[in-house]
Amino acid sequence: MLQSKKIRAIFTDIGGVLLNNGWDRHKRALAVEKFSLDAEELNERHHLTFDTYEEGKITLDQYLDRVIFYTSRDFTREDFKTFMYGLSEPFEDMIELMKSLKKQHQLHIAVVSNEGRELNDHRIRHFGLNTFVDAFISSSFVHIRKPDEDIFKLALDISQMKPEEVVFIDDRPMFVQVAGLLGIKGIIHKHYENTKSELEALLAG
Fold first, then answer.
1. Between the CA of residue 157 and those of 18, 31, 94, 135, 154, what are the distances in Å?
2. Residues 47 and 99 in one domain
3. How many domains are there within the chain?
4. Rounded to whole angstroms, what are the CA distances from 3 to 13, 41, 56?
5. 3-state per-residue secondary structure call for 27-89
6. DSSP label at 12?
7. What is the per-residue pLDDT across 25-84, written as a single tens digit (0 to 9) for each?
8. Do 138 and 57 share a domain, yes or no?
């Protein structure tokens, strides 16, 4: 019984934990400024269709057709996509913490995230997340988004972990709370030192 309560896996979000957010309101504000876009119209169109993109039901090009290129522009699709990809930045301290804890405690690391496929693919490869993450349960891969409980159930099945063997890290309190309903321990990520301390305490226990 004691063995079953030991933490054997970390489930973690990408945006807000390992990297900055891929395409949030702050990034869209930068796009508005750079490309002289109508902020209200962009955000309205974004909110109407972004969930569909994150669920993997449309491609990035289709998303951009609906949100940006529904009218003629004086910049190209490739210009805009290069801009989007270039906004991603790593949180190196969190990445190194995951690598260190994985090695020290022989942990299984799984990502449970809401991200569109093309942005997700770019971020995984560009920042080498696939060098230490064992499984990617991304919304665009599995067609389920947080806070749907099913994405956490799927992550448990894929990882072959019991809920009590897992700690989930996310910067969104609701997502941590939903995972907790399944018996998964949670850490609401606010900053590196806090998360590091909470993780080390759970792993020591």
1. 23, 39, 25, 11, 5
2. no
3. 2
4. 26, 54, 37
5. HHHHHHHHHCCCHHHHHHHHHHHHHHHHCCCCCHHHHHHHHCCCCCCCCCHHHHHHHHHHCCC
6. E
7. 999 999 999 999 999 999 999 999 999 999 999 999 999 999 999 999 999 999 999 999
8. no
Q: In which domain, by residue range, is 155 found?
A: 3-21+90-204
Q: Is 166 helix (H, G, I), strand (E, B) or coil?
A: strand
- The two tokens of residue 89 are 């930045």
CA–CA dist 64, 195 (Å, integer): 35
Q: pTM (2 decimals)?
A: 0.94
Do 52 and 130 lie in one domain? The reply is no
Contact 57, 8 (CB under 8 A): no
| Structure token pair of residue 189 | 């990520």
Same domain flag for 60 and 153: no
How far CA 151 is from CA of 11, 47, 82, 137, 168, in Å, comes to 11, 21, 30, 7, 12
User: Which CATH number covers residue 66?
Assistant: 1.10.150.240
pLDDT, tens only, 121-138: 999 999 999 999 999 999
Per-residue model confidence (pLDDT) at position 98:
98
pLDDT score recorded for residue 3: 40
Same domain for 111 and 77:
no
